[in-house]
Amino acid sequence: MMNFSNFPILSVITYMPLLGILVICCIDSKRHDLIRWVAFIAGVVTFFVSLPLYFLFDATTWQMQFVEDIPWISQFGIRYHMGIDGISVLLVLLTTFLSALAILSTWTAVTEGVKGYMISLLFLEVGMLGVFCALDFILFYVFWEVMLIPMYFIIGIWGGPRRIYAAVKFFIYTMSGSVLMLVAILVLWYKFYEVTGVFTFDILTFYNLGLPSNIQLWLFLAFFLAFAIKVPMFPFHTWLPDAHVEAPTAGSVILAGVLLKMGTYGFLRFSLPIFPQATMDAIPYVFVLSVIGIIYGALVSLAQDDIKKLVAYSSVSHLGYCMLGMFALNPEGVKGSIIQMINHGLSTGALFLIVGMLYERRHTRLISDYGGVLKVMPIFAAFFLLVCFASMGVPGLNGFIGELLILIGAFKASVGFGMLATVGLILGAVYLLWMYKRVMYGEITKEENRLLKDMNGREYAYLVPIIVFIVWIGVYPRPFLDKMDVSVQHLLQVVNQQGAKQADARAVEGMNSNTANRNTELFAADQRL
Amino acid sequence: MEQVMATIKLSALYPEIVLTVFALLILMLQAFNSLRYKEYYGYLTLVGVLAAIGFVVSQPAGFDMRVVEYTFSNMWVVDNYSRFFKLIFLLGTGLTILISMKYLEHEEIQYGEYFALVLFATVGMMIMASGAELITIFLGLEVMSVSLYVLAGYTRTRLESNEAALKYYVLGSFAAGFLLYGIALIYGSTGSTEIKSIAKFVATSGLRSPTMIMGMALLVIGFGFKAALVPFHMWTPDVYEGAPAPITAFMSAGPKAAAFAAFVRIFMEALPSLQVEWTALIWIIAALTMTVGNVIALVQDNIKRMLAYSSIAHAGYVMVAFLAAGELGIPSIMYYMLTYTFMNIGAFAIITVLGGRGEQRVRIQDYKGLGYSNPYAAVAMSLFLFSLAGIPPTGGFMGKFYIFSAAIKEGFIGLAIIGVINSVVSVYYYLRVTIAMYMEGTSAAAGAEGQLAFSPAIILAIFISAYGVLSLGLFPATYVAIAKLSHLAL
Lengths: 529, 490
Hints:
With 529 residues, chain A is mainly alpha-helical. Helix content of chain A is 73%, strand content 3%.
């Protein structure tokens, strides 16, 4: 095998879209097709450059791989530190995969300002990849904020009727969460300096800090706010329906597919390992919020008469599962949570693409404007049904794997919350199938729907690859789960060791029985008490 | 008091001398009307600014970054602190001149006096940065202020401009009175106006007399006025709105930085032992300045007025750094003022161009459709606005990061939280301009005629500003290193 140890592959992947932007900048803005092709090629090339990550990734170690580490602003100890482990590798691949397909999906949907649109999409990809690769707090924060700008323009310029409101709301909501995180990062940085005399923003350094629990709590809350808004967890979700509904199709795909994962990823990468004690303390609250999110999201979806809004609220529900599994803090739950992030990216991305196809044909998203579409678009109907099944977690498709693992994890942690979460599963089937029935079955009630054309070649081209992965993960998830095994084990070890050590030290509250993690180390700690 | 031999080292004054000579030369040429093309005044000014930059960098001790040289009987100091600030002033002046030339031609007020006044104002600022003695600093402040009073009213035929000049003059003189009174009280309590002697006196005697505290408070008022801190900010919106756009750009960068330069030097070098006394005062001023500036900016429709309030808010951020002081705080002020110079003058360059004759088009809705009628200007404007809002990867973000890291390091976490929340508030009004430019329809609003051409000089100014904003944001290490070296020798 070739030696890639010195090849900055992560930077190449991250900045590859910039190359596309440069080329697009040189093209006359009236040559729409050329711009689209260049953007698409840039997306595809980025995806193919990122593929080797999968094959070269060493799944036997939790250490960061493909690491690049050079000083950036040495006076503050800020470094340009990139690297991925089993938690982020799949997310990077998901990003490059969905971005390329999202670009393909906008061929006919966006006809004005194509140049700016494609530049925004590619710029967005840079930001997202950077977030998943960055191992330095400030580098992470820069990418995290950078990606607000293109998304703001995508929603605000190419969005629906209430686009300006949605764009501003998205921007301000996200930013108000993240500025407090910046303060928390700085406090962390200073606390570390106080103890060691070293300035560093290196994320991994903070893993074994053993902060006092009152400081942990405040910092955890600041991080929590930033990530919970991004996820979004119930009660911080109100920006999401607006942003999703107003954004153009590609924007929604990226938003649901990747941006939301930045929140859950943030929890895994920062909150859990850096504030283990606070994490343990937060378990019951996060469980409650997650379960509310699962059920509330599903119920609100049920009440929607706009397909896109329905899909948007279903994200609140699905991300609730991710949070539930993650805070179960056992291997099943966390692995389920990560695979569910990928699943949600694929299946909800596909749902948004499908809604986009309907919208492009009829320019309406109201369920009542459809009905009987099955008769005129049979192939489309089959794909649609498959994606709905994937989203509701039918066995044999990807959603099942994720939700099953999460529920196993949840039941292990707390039977009550596990059962409540299962209710969400049933509701998920209800709102998706009911929507499917009203859109696809029955007689054609609207004359306009009689002449709808079935899917064209380009639509196959961007939907089929997603379907392939939906089935693949559903039937044979091992290649994906294997990648994260060791990293997840290590993460849990960090969390539990630290948490147990500190719980032991406090020797008071111990672990509440409902939050108790039936992990051997913790068990031992309990026994000693 | 020991008697000091009057040491005179003229080379320490070369930059100021050069600028003064150029200013006088321009005045003479104008008086005899001997330049055939009026643009030459602008070019001549630029030559003067470049020469001064050369002297700032190379005098008095070559490129040695650590030199601290007191001369003229301890009234004048050349250290990296002052040199860094002088470079900021000269940068601001240079960019202002680039913006001004076409504007003056368009408004038919292209006279040499304008450039001479800008140069005199710059000399005043440089004196403030290098003054090591209160009266010297005061003289610098007056040289700067008097020039600015005239410049604010330079578009004689516009009523707003007259109003701005008068308001600025009356209130400015009043504030100068406070400053002078403060100096007098400090002189009365310590027996000296030299920064070094005051520091020595206060440190050894442990003086905490009411007159001393009073003097300090009056200094805060005097400088607070020049730097537009709440509650001494009332003049800012009217003056910024009324003054010619290039002068507003000029005023928001250089003079503000100069006020901070002198403010910081006096408080850090002369009055560090009174830190306990001024911390509470400055804490409140910083929190108020950030909040009031940002909140009032939310409801402004005139973009010059909006940026006036935004500049008040930015002064608040700088005050956070001021409070943090220390080895991070002071360099962060310099870094921030440098960034601010680039981003604010950049934004005003575009405002100048789009304003048109008589600055008719300075409301936010006049920017409607700019993203389509002039995409390059809109992209540049967005860059400057995002930088002002503190979004990476711009210099504005790094500047705020620098300031807040200093604040947290010195334990001002509450103030840092107020600061970051304020920057979220500020996002809203900066975004309003991008909304107008990109999201409210593609047709440019009526009355696009009368717009200035993007002359090469203005394009150059925008380009330099954009480069500055981006390089300060993406590759800050060098700038941070220089700012750090310029840390005051306390």
